[in-house]
Amino acid sequence: EDRERVYLLFQSVVAEKSECDFECRIFRVDGLQRWIWGHGKIFSNSTGDAVKMLGMVLDITARKQLEEALVDREKEFRSLAESMPQIVWATRADGWNIYFNQQWVDYTGLSLEESHGQGWNKPFHPDDLKRAWDAWQNAVHNRGSYAMECRLRRVDGIYRWWLIRGVPALDEGGNIVKWFGTCTDIEDIKLNEAKLREKNIELERFTYMISHDLKSPLVTIGTFLNYLEQDLAKSDVDLVAKDMHYIAKAAEKMGRMLTELFEFTRVGRVRQKLVFAQWRDVVDEALGMVAGVIASRNVHVDIDDARVLLHGERERLVQIWQNLLDNAAKFGGDQADLRVHIGVEGQGTATIFFVCDNGIGIDPRYHEKIFLLFERLDTSAPGTGLGLALVKRVVEFYGGTIKVESRGLGFGACFRFTLPKAFENAEAKGDDT
Ligand code: ADP
After folding, report:
1. 396-416 pLDDT, tens digit each
2. Ligand 1: does its nearest atom lie under 6 Å from the Cβ of 89?
3. pTM for the complete prediction?
4. 327 lines ligand 1 (CB under 6 A)
5. Pocket test for ligand 1, best of 256, 320, 331, 380 (most atoms within 8 A of CB)
6. What is the spatial distance between Cα 414 and Cα 354, in angstroms, rounded to a whole number?
7. Is residue 388 within 6 Å of ligand 1 at its C-beta?
8. Which of 306, 365, 299, 308 is nearest to 326 (CA)?
């Protein structure tokens, strides 16, 4: 394969009376193929005619083999780096970038030309650059590896959190010659960490509330047991009956709180069958559950004429309207013409549901508080303060939010909420039920 090339080269050297370097493969006497490097030079006589060519050759097979191995290793490194789900990079000892894999290009939208050299810092969040620099400097000082978290800008302009790791490659003298590293997308882990922190705080509050609020009926029972003892000693039948009445009521209240608490903790944890249900049927079922209080307060209920298909746990969905309706009837105050309006606005996942009443209303100061566990503003009506906490939990389980609108006492209250996840499959199915 090399013969023709070398022959042509020699011909041109002779013609130009010049000299040349060349590399080619030759077969040794034992038949083994070797690589040689050669240098040839034409010598001319006094009249300028080429008379001889003198040259030397060196066996460079070992160097060639090393070079080939290096090319193979480079190819291996590249295919490994390209197959990694992470961003892979390499820099010179001074931090000058010499390599990024395709993940970097895809994520940042920067070309390799734009990213090489100092271009690596372009997608870094400005607030993180100094930290990144310091972490690297520290690693340079220690000649060790480093890891740091920072935000990198995605091609669409959104920043996500990444874990950047770098490892130095050292020469025999322990000097850094290159840096190799990866960037791993940890945005989801970060989000989950934040959610977990929030959940822990919620759990702490929850435990505190439970221990605090469940104690109060127990305190009542203890107090009236003492009275009972005294009243029995006095054989005062009327007072004994009164004491027992308070004890029974406190026990009943505690039972109710525990049942509702149990229900509350089951939301999202114990899954029921997922079904398709028409919003109107869900509301009607809820109305049936609170028919007693609605009738006793003589509430006039208006329901919008709309067809909205929901997908979810039917019982949980019913609980939302059941609790809101129950409250609307319970907290009617002295409103003679108590009215509740149940309806929907918007479409698809953005649909807003509302339950509005013209009852006692809620002071804006308490608009957030009423959704907390056991929080009650009006203790004259029966209840445990768990209803709205349960509603909020169900709404959030369906990816939605809930808020109350009320100008204050005497102005009625309007609860508005969304349930985006109850539409995910319902939209695909269409309104064919
Ligand atoms: P409960 O109904 O057991 O008291 P909730 O969690 O359902 O507990 O409600 C918390 C508090 O919010 C109620 O005690 C009441 O003070 C207030 N509230 C709820 N709904 C209404 C409403 N429709 N109108 C006025 N106040 C309300």
Report:
1. 999 999 999 999 989 999 999
2. no
3. 0.59
4. yes
5. 331
6. 7
7. yes
8. 299
